[in-house]
Structures are given as C-alpha cells and as structure tokens.
C-alpha cells in the first residue's frame, strides 16, 4: 500500500515524524491480509511551505492538521 500526503504548509521534520508515526499506527498497522502485516507499505509526506503558513510544533494548528 502507498500513501501520499501533500501540503503547502510548512512543517518541521520532527512534527512530520511524530504525526506520521501516530497516523500509521492508527491505519497501516491495523490492516492485515491472512493475519499478516505488509512489509512493503510506504508513506510519503511532502510539505513545501509555499502557502506561507507554518504549523508550529505542539500547537492547536498541529492538532488540526493531524486530523485531516
């Protein structure tokens, strides 16, 4: 399975890593085929900051962004 997340918001690498870990545990890690987890799932997050909006770590904006 492949997952691509793209945003024009600016995100710190640590924020992306934290949110990716939480999101993957709630989605990818719950999917199994014949009782086995996939070993080749891939998740990409691309954040270019073009919108001029910065999502600060540990902020309300970070929580809102994570729910999308």
What does this structure look like?
With 68 residues, this protein is an alpha/beta fold. The protein has helices spanning 13-26, 60-66; strands at residues 2-7, 10-11, 42-47, 54-55. The mean pLDDT is 83.
Tell me roughly what share of residues is in helical segments.
25-40%
Give a short account of the largest sheet: 2 strands, parallel
Rg result: 14 Å
The rounded distance between the terminal residues' Cα atoms is 19 Å
Shape, please?
elongated
Looking across the biggest beta sheet, what order are the strands in? 1-3
**Helix count from the secondary structure assignment:** 2
Which segments are poorly predicted (pLDDT under 50) over 5 or more consecutive residues?
none
On the 0 to 100 scale, the average pLDDT is: 83
Protein topology:
Elements: E1 2-7, E2 10-11, H1 13-26, E3 42-47, E4 54-55, H2 60-66
Parallel strand pairs: 1-3, 2-4
Please outline what is shown here.
By secondary structure, the chain is of the alpha/beta class. It contains two helices and four strands; from the N terminus they run ββαββα.
């Amino acid at each position: 399975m492949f997952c691509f997340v793209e945003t024009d918001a600016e995100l710190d690498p640590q924020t992306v890593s934290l949110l990716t870990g939480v999101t993957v545990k709630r989605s990818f890690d719950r999917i199994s085929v014949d009782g086995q987890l996939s070993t080749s799932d891939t998740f990409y997050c691309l954040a270019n900051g073009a919108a001029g909006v910065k999502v600060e770590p540990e902020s309300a904006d970070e929580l809102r962004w994570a729910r999308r």
